[in-house]
Amino acid sequence: MQSHTLVRTEQPQDVEAVRRVNTLAFGRAEEAALVDALRAAGGVTLSLVAEVNGQVVGHILFSPVELDRGGGHDVAVGLAPMAVLPDHQRHGIGSKLIRAGLDRLREAGHGAVVVLGHPDYYPRFGFARASRFGLRWEVECPDEAFMALELREGFLGNRPGIVRYRPEFGAV
User: Cross-referenced SUPFAM superfamilies, in alphabetical order (predicted)?
Assistant: First the structure.
């Protein structure tokens, strides 16, 4: 039923379409405002769109996160937000966006990705509880919902630490 999906890097002419996808997918404007704020602050590691028949129907954004490990600081990547237009959901577009994003981040040499998401969805991509790596988010959340994925084996190790997202996450 779903036509061919093209996943590509977001371009400047996609800004309005990305805003629309995030607003409609989440039913509110906060995620779209977050994307705009991250973009404006230079806080985007990778931003991809999914197109079907020339229309942007999905979006995923990755931004840098700090791993504060008691005196040592590492940089990883946070996945947020990921959105697909409601009438295109449940057709594998989100999965294609996630897989393409993880592949590109791995190829670029990034060490790990964290996500706050549905514990029944993200493990299929290799995510596991971040607490397994000794990590927790600076904001209280259910342990099973905050997950991490090593892109380079051993990058996360098991050194306790706190994951800190960019300030734009708290500003919208």
Answer: Acyl-CoA N-acyltransferases (Nat)
